């Protein structure tokens, strides 16, 4: 029996063209399902994101789709992370160089826009109907189907509707009203891409700096470009309209920190953000009727665990597998939530814990942190290993 003969559905509406959306569409196409991906942004709009890490567990899903090599080529392998204090002294290291042997892949850093474009293109190549400028404004169920109404008035019907539309999910608001709102983590994020030849960064390595008043991370991409982000709790200062005022605020927050940080910020043509970082620790349920959430729409995590995109990729495979094996969409959604909830909520908790460690520390707390960080990193690396070694196999039947 082929996969397409086993699938209990024939049509799927997938809302969101980021990570989970086109990925679940590709797996559904493997089952012979007609998948339509609805992305609210126009194709010409730039992606507001900066960059992210694809962890080994996420890369395994991409390998199942035959996209692993292409996306590694579009990004850059991360050799590891070095942690420094406000004086520039290295206080801890997480080495990734053995991860390919240990976990089957090594983390890849990639621009978010590049990842989204590649996944949408791959989904279209495999027969998904990928539509841009398609904003869903209403959802209704009729006997045997679910209907989405677009902003222009067009109505589309399918057997299931999958909400892959991120932290501020419109699908969640429409189909699961009363769901808890995303929680502010206490941190704001600004980032950018710069060429700064004088920055003392080793290609392939990420440097994480606990500054006196803010946290700064920088990845030295091959070719000499620096990809960076800045975290702090000064929400109002980061949200000023004038980007040069925002740049000045970042520079002021890093006054007294290693000088290369200011050099990188000054060398950045365009600041990206700001983003107030939120997460969703738990939702009472992820599905209602013929509608199901996945990815950040169901369990948003802050970037501090480096798992958001990889969890979305895992979700896409698992949900498509559940739809393949279940007798009804509702049974598939229930099985998906049962299989995924404990894992993703553990990652959200770890990300929140990691983010708490980025808060500025006074002199005594910084002294303690600098001496205890290697111990904390060992514990963090153990949690990271549990996330990385997780595997979701397409060929494995669902329970």
Automatic annotation (TrEMBL):
| InterPro entries, per database record | FAD-bd (IPR002938), FAD-dep_Monooxygenase_BioMet (IPR050493), FAD/NAD-bd_sf (IPR036188)
Q: The organism sits in which domain of life?
A: Bacteria
The molecular function terms in GO held by this entry are: FAD binding; monooxygenase activity
The segment(s) forming the FAD-binding domain are 12-351
Pfam families with a match to the protein in the record: FAD_binding_3
Keywords on record = Monooxygenase, Oxidoreductase
Name of protein: 2-polyprenyl-6-methoxyphenol hydroxylase
Query: Could you tell me which species this protein originates from?
Result: Nannocystis exedens
